[in-house]
Amino acid sequence: MFTSLWQWLYDVPLIGTVRDSQFAFPILECFHLYSMVFLLAMVVMFDLRLMGVSWANQGPSSLAGFARQVLTWIWLPLLVNAVTGTLLFGTMAPDYSHNWAFQTKISLIVGGVAYHLAMLVAVARWREDATTGAMTKLMSALAVLVWPSVIIASRWIAYA
Amino acid sequence: MEIGAICEALETSALSKAILGPTWLWPALASVHLMAMALLVASITAFDLRLLGFIMRDQPVSQVARRLVPATWSGFALMILTGVLMFLPVANGKYCPNASFQLKLALIALSGVNMTFFHLTVFRSVDRWDRGETPMAAKLVGTFSALLWIGVVAAGRFIGFVG
Question: Who is most buried in A61, A79, A103, B7, counting CB within 10 A?
Answer without folding.
Answer: B7
